[in-house]
Amino acid sequence: MSTKSTPREQLLRAGSRLLTDLDMSVLARSLSIAAVVEEAGLSHQTFHNAYPGSSRSGERGGKEAFVEDLLAHVTLQYSPQDGDADQPLSDLAAYFEQLNAGLLRRKMIGAMIASDHAGARSSLAPDFDAIDHAVEGAVRHKLRALGGSVRTPLTVAELSTVLVALLDGLALQENLSPGTMSAARVSAAIDSLLDWAVDPVHSDRRERITVPAGGHPSLEGLDHSRVDVESDVIAATETLFAEHGYFSVTLADIAEASALTVTDLKRLFPSKVDIIVAALTPEFERVLRLGRADARLEVKPVVALTRSVTRLAEFVARNRAMSSGMLLALSFEQFHEPGTVTTIREHLPVPSALTPILESGQRRGDFATEASASELATMLANNVVIRSVTRSAEPPEDVTDNVLKVFLSGILPR
Fold it and tell me: Is CATH 1.10.3300.10 correct for 272-411?
């Protein structure tokens, strides 16, 4: 049997090769002016007014000028969700649904056009960046919900890139074979990957510190001329918390930002909670010191309480990133690392700034309640810290007014 290809088969293969090597600007030139003005709802005259001249007569105008302009301003017409640019991407499954709703086709065509045209690459870059940003935001939201951080050596950005590539591939599979990849299956796959990629206790477990037989690892990488390494670490941590949030920051991130090895960082601060405690303790001790001064001066309990609550609100406002980390550690890590919660409560007993004032007020009869002063102090302190963290635009004095307006109404004599 002859294996020689027929002319038809040779022609088809040649056509396939040409399609593979097709310059996308050629495809754009195949657009007719009639189709463009009809799609735009405009007239032929309007088109020629916008792009005067004619490429047929050697001028750079008309159809050729339009194609160049089109390629230099091509867009994926992407918005994070449901056409609302201000609405963040709710979850990664929502991105998969967008791909199947037409985004995948636009993204693939855009990528092909950008590969052949520098102007198109510049024009499409913001769209591709917006997609990456939206997916990374969804990943960070998921991390906060899970109460963990990305395992080293991965970063949030790298994990997001992997998930974008995965979801693009799954959407392509669904377009090629409809019904093979449902949104439910995609969600299950994403959850499985995140379960693997997320460390719920932020321990950077994958890094193994080897201790030489003679004792602790050496500090060869440490610049001994640095005067206050701990302050450098605290400053770097505060910046990272402010930019990325408590859960998304790992000890490896902090070490890199502080120009330390993770080994040396852990010798200074074994955990993120230890850094928070070191950062907040001096500020909190000031709150306690001023409260003790009020007690020695016999400031009336209601006035002293107002002053101490304001100091607590100011303390949080000055240290918002670290205070947010403290609050999240107390809220979530009690389920994973109870020891970290104990560390915070021992070194930063926030209610203790209010307990003596409430006790004094109860003894004097200024506060008419039989509830435990420590219980009342805990309730009040929690409200002050939470409100101060979550309402960054509200000044400390307003936090005090709003919290005490409700709290004092329940404990003052009728």
Answer: no
